[in-house]
Every structure is written in structure tokens, then in C-alpha cells.
Amino acid sequence: MAKYVIVGASAAGIGAVEAIRDVDPVGTITVISEEPCPQYSRPMISDFVSGKADFNKMKCRTDDFWKENNVEALTGKKATALNLTEKTVQLEGGEKVAYEKLLLATGGKPFVPKMEGSDKDGVFTFTTFKDAERLAAKIDSINAKAAVVIGAGLIGISVTEALLKRGLKVTMVELQDKILSLLLDAKASDLVEAVVRKAGVNIVTGQSVQKILGKPDNEGVVDGVILTKGDQVPCDLVIVAIGVVPRTELVTGTAVKINRGIVVDNMMQTNVPDVYASGDVTEAYDFIMNQNRLLPLWPLAVLEGQVAGYNMAGKKTTYMGGTNMSSLKYFGTPIVSIGLANPKEDPALEVLVEHDAERNVYKKIVLKNNVIVGMTLVNCIERAGVLFYLMKNAINVKRFKQKLLSDDFGLATLPVGLQRKMCVVQ
Amino acid sequence: MKRIIAKQELCMGCGLCEVYCTVQHSKSKDTIKAYNSERPKPISRVRLEVNKPISFAIQCRHCEDAPCVTACLSGAMQKDEKTGLVTHNPDKCMGCWTCIMVCPYGAIKMDQQGKVVAKCDLCQGLEEPACVANCPNQALVFKEVKL
Questions:
Q1: B43 and chain A: CB distance < 8 Å anywhere?
Q2: Is A383 an 8 Å CB contact of chain B?
């Protein structure tokens, strides 16, 4: 029997292994992973498609990661069932792995809405290396000329840029009125949209794809799509990039509590003793919204995995929480957006905004009782982390509020006491 | 570990720390070439923070529990357990800016015309980091600091 069993070997699983080994060098760890390849960065799969990165560059840990951490890695194997009473995980083929402490880090799977023709050859999702590999191979094999990307969020915009770099004509279709609507307000979204359009992308908002069409001579192969309003867009490829939903199938029907994702406490423990969950499969704490919710983001998954790992190994650790936070690199437009960056009208909130059209710079900070609760920075992100620090530590910014948006805002703007606390000055 | 810390009251805001850092991290190690002709343009990994009359230089703190390392999407940012250094491998960097988003010090910069990040490496191989050694008013010190 392994002391620790981890299902899933991406961000959360890696974080957990490292945390466990930080405090328990000898306890046996077994990791079950469906993917046969070494640890790689899923956010990098668009760089693989564009040709900017090969698999070697995508590897986010050393080749000997399992060995170095003394992990028994059951890679290329799928966990199919969970028995909480006998404390075992069953693998495809029937083999059972017993655990003392279990981490569910099964991640997310792409959400594919009901759409006529979504089973045609040329329709892709975009989450794993395998997806990227298949897409890149397809582009080459059919010499693809045009693609429709469904969804203009993080995944959508990343795959759009990659396809554009490969020389394809890309149409991005977004159901919301704005692109990146979960991250940006209307103004910032418009600014980015203009850049993306200028790069040659056709953007359709307020619509979705109602039907994927097949070729006249081969119905099973993608030839185009029909949008909600009836317009037809010819294409060779359709990439469904709407988002991910938690992969909860392993726990469905067990005593482990699931809401939209697996429900955990602030130690990343589920309602079942000795069973933990982390990463995209989990509803973890959002310190801005002050509630647990789905936040499928790589850095948060690593942190959550670490917290679970420490607690599994007996070092009591509390998850301080994350929030909706992303940095974007696409289309030469660096963006950082964190927390309540696009709030509804609320008299309790104070919004500071600056837009410099000439430099295409946009800055927005949302305050509640003089504490930063949201921010968006476009084309001026180098000091984003200082603002995030103030946000995360709920520091009252009243005394220097008027400087938050200025170009020279930085550590020198902060009160001396805080500078000392942060060890930036003696 | 030994870290760089600023004596704010001694800093004149001259910016020479940035100049020496830039040159130290250039290919040519020559001031004129580094600033005028070298491509990709070398950049300073130290930043002079100014809020007149206050100024001081800031560079990567090499945090014990470095948020940039945890957040790094590509594995480019690592904590060297032996030396304590937070190291950055530009060949692995995907330029996603996640480290910039989470660095409390704003100490990570965009490099090579916005393709990857760059940060202080404490001038490995030198007895003292270039910014410390060349500060005309000794406003930067290199000493044991606990974070």
C-alpha cells in the first residue's frame, strides 16, 4: 500500500509531490496519470502549435522528476473507480491501488456544447499536449487554410494566435458581446479586440456555432460552420475553446461531495477523511469573492496541490486562496487582470481608470474601503505584482491612492514601514 | 543567504546601478555597445524606484518561498535549494508574464523586446554584484539578510 496516492500528474499533482517530499522524504507516493509523457506545461500547447516550442521546451520539470522524488509513477493508466471504504483506486484493467491519503487532481476537461456536426473530422478541443499534437499534424496533413475558433477566452485567444502564426485565416466566435469577457471590462476588451482584428483575425461576437458542416463529397470532414444568425463561415478546422469543466467522473456516485467541482475546506480536504482535492477539479477559495469556486488556473492549481500535499504529510497548512487572475502575452499586448476587474455598478466600489490611447495603455484599479479588490493593466504590466501584493494583503491604500495609476508607481510609493516590512530598504 | 539591500537615505537616484547592471548582462560588456548597438538590447535587472525625494534600487529578493517559482508555467523559474538563488532559464521561458503578475517587488522585467523575462542573478561569478560594487554612494549593500 502506498502512503500517498495522487490521481493526476499535472500542476496540482506536481505541487503535491513536491510538498510531500519537502516534509516526508520516505513515505511511498504513487501517482496515477492518464498521460504517458513527462510533466509538461499545458499553457504552452499553443506555443507547440505555432512552432515556437517543441515538447522538450514544454517540459516543466526534469526528466527524472519521478525518480528524484522517489515516486512510483503509473503513467498512461486511467483511474476508473474509487472505493472509499476499502481505500482503493481502481485502474483500467481492474488493478487496485490502496492508499492511506488520496489526492484527487484529475483536472478539467474541455467543455463541448451540443452542436450538430461536432463529431466531424477536423473538430478539435485544446487542452492537452495530445490535442496540440493532433492539431499541428492535421494542419500539415491537409494543408489547412482556415479555422474557426469557438470561444474568445484564454484558450481561444492563445490557439487563435498560434493558428495565425501558422498562416491560417482565423475566425473567432464568441457567444458573449465581448472577447475575454471573464477577464476584462468593455473598454479593455475593445482595446484588445482592435489589436487582434488588426492582426487579421475575423471576430464574431454575440453568436455561437449552431452547426458544423461537412464537405459535399465527404460529409464526415469539416467544410465550414453556420453561426447562430445563419451566416456561413468556410473552414477546414474547428477548435472548441470554450473552457474546461471539472473531471469529477471518478468521484461521481461516491460520498465525496461535489458541487460544480469537488468541495474542499481550506486545507484542501474533501468531506471524506484522508481524501483531498486540488486544481481544476476543485472549488477552491477565492479571497476576493470570499467563497469557494472554480478557478481553473495553473498557478493556483500548483498552490492548491502544495497545500494538499503538506496536509497529507501531516504539516498543517491553510490555503490562503487565489482569485480570477491571469496574465496574457498574446498579440504583442501584455495584460494582467486580477480579481473584481469588471464589477457591476456598486456604490461601495471606487474605480480608478486611466486610458492613454496614444500608447494603447489602459489601467484600472477597483477599490473597496480603500483596499484593492480588482485591477486590469494593458501594455504596462511590470509593476502588476506590487499591486497584487497590496490586494492580497488587503493593505489600505488611502494615503497613496492618487499615485496608484501613475507611471512611476512602484515600491517607492509605498509607506516606509511597508518598505521595511518587505525588506526592500534597510 | 547574502542579498542586496538598499540604504534609501544614501541613494542619490543617479541610476548608475542600472547602467552597470545592463553592461554586466550584455554580451559585449562594453557600455557604448551595450546601449547603442547590441541586439537583443541588454536590459538592467535592477530598477531605480523614484518617488521624489525618495529613491532606491530594487532587484529580485530571491525569496525563500518565491511566488514566481510556484506560479511559473514553464519551469523556467526555479529555486536553487543549495545556493538559495531564484534562477531563471530564458531558454525555457515562454514569456507568459505570470511571474510578473505575482512578484511583490515588481522585480521581474520584460526582455528581448518582450519575449521572455529577466531578473537579478546576483552577478554569479563576481565577488559582489555589479550594482553594489559600482554604487558611488554605497547605497546598496550585499550582506546576509533574512526575508
A1: no
A2: yes
CA distance linking residue A214 with residue A346, whole number of Å: 48
ipTM for the complex shown: 0.97
CATH 3.40.50.10490 is the classification of domain A2-109+245-312:
no
Residue A178 phi/psi, 5-degree rounding, is -130, 155
**What are the DSSP E strand ranges found in chain B?**
2-6, 47-51, 54-58, 77-79, 86-88, 109-111, 116-118, 140-144
C-alpha cell at B43: 536590459
Name residues of chain A where pLDDT drops below 50. none
Distance from CA of B40 to the nearest CA of A (A): 17
Query: Candidates 3.30.390.30, 1.20.950.20, 3.30.470.20, 3.30.110.30; correct CATH number of A334-421?
Result: 3.30.390.30
Query: B interface mutation test: which of A329, A375, A402, A403 has the most B CBs within 10 A?
Result: A329
Contact A171, A146 (CB under 8 A): yes
- CA-CA distance, B20 to A158, in Å (whole number)? 37
A385 touches chain B (CB under 8 A): yes
Contact at CB, A410 and B147, closer than 8 angstroms: no
For chains A and B, CB pairs below 8 A equal 132
pLDDT digit string (tens) for A149-184? 999 999 999 999 999 999 999 999 999 999 999 999
Beta strands A232-234; A237-240: pairing state: unpaired
User: pTM of the full predicted structure?
Assistant: 0.96
Which residues of chain B, if any, have pLDDT below 50? none
Asked if B132 and B96 sit in the same domain, the reply is: no
**Nearest-neighbour CA in chain B from A18: distance (Å):** 11
| Residue linked to cell 550594482 | B131
